[in-house]
Design brief:
about 15% strand; about 230 residues; 7-stranded mixed beta sheet; 7 helices; alpha/beta; globular; Glycerol-3-phosphate (1)-acyltransferase; two-stranded antiparallel sheet
Length: about 230
């Protein structure tokens, strides 16, 4: 059972989450967004299907702006810092579902699967909340199995950005930078999988997000070298 937050903690969370949402909104308004791979999403939408977005924990900031106000249900860690993230993304138009691959994961997986079956897109950072960095944990594959929804790998990069020395190499695009958002081809996961096939799907998703991340980063490294 989670400890009830004190009045001081509730005030802190109220203020910091609003400042965080305002920061993302103001920063995002200055970015020039470059999209690639939207045809993959359009094909799924034409079939009236919803999707599971999968992206690295350290690349979430730009996506909090680019995908705001779409009522996407996103899994957020039950760790202490997760409450700040949950309240911040809620203000940006996401619906946080508390849980992770390490704590509260099974319960959260059932809850987010229910929301997905109700017609909502869902989002997961498959290497969160504690890593290893850029390694897909199995929960997202299990979610795709249970819902039958395709996984859309997502990555982004920035022409000007600050990469923090955190475990997830958190990227903060600078004001007025170009931000590239890459959507990959959908990955379908059959309901019945052997242990070997499950691992193959996990690796397929991991390699897809890594490849998109390299493309997004390389886009700007080429322009810098000219």
């Amino acid at each position: 059972m989670r400890r009830r937050a004190s009045f001081r903690e509730r005030v802190f969370l109220f203020l910091i989450s609003r400042l965080g949402a305002l920061f993302i909104w103001i920063m995002g308004k200055t970015w020039r967004l470059h999209w690639a791979g939207q045809e993959h999403l359009r094909a799924i939408r034409s079939a009236r299907e919803n999707v599971i977005y999968a992206f690295w924990h350290g690349r979430m900031l730009a996506l909090c702006f680019s995908h705001r106000r779409q009522n996407i249900h996103i899994m957020v860690s039950e760790h202490r810092d997760g409450e700040i993230v949950a309240q911040t993304v809620n203000l940006l138009g996401f619906v946080p579902i508390r849980g992770s691959t390490t704590k509260g994961g099974r319960k959260a997986l059932f809850r987010i699967a229910e929301r997905a079956r109700s017609g909502y897109d869902v989002a997961i950072t498959p290497d969160g909340p504690r890593g290893p960095c850029w390694r897909v944990q199995p929960g997202v594959i299990t979610l795709a199995q249970r819902t039958g929804m395709p996984i859309i790998p997502v990555a982004n990069g920035a022409s000007l950005g600050k990469t923090l020395s955190s475990w997830d190499r958190f990227l903060i695009p600078m004001p007025f930078s170009r931000v590239a958002i890459f959507l990959g081809a959908p990955i379908s996961v059959p309901r019945e999988l052997s242990e070997t096939s499950f691992e193959e799907k996990r690796l397929e998703l991991e390699r897809a997000i890594l490849a998109l991340t390299q493309r997004a980063d390389h886009l700007f490294s080429r322009s810098h070298s000219r």
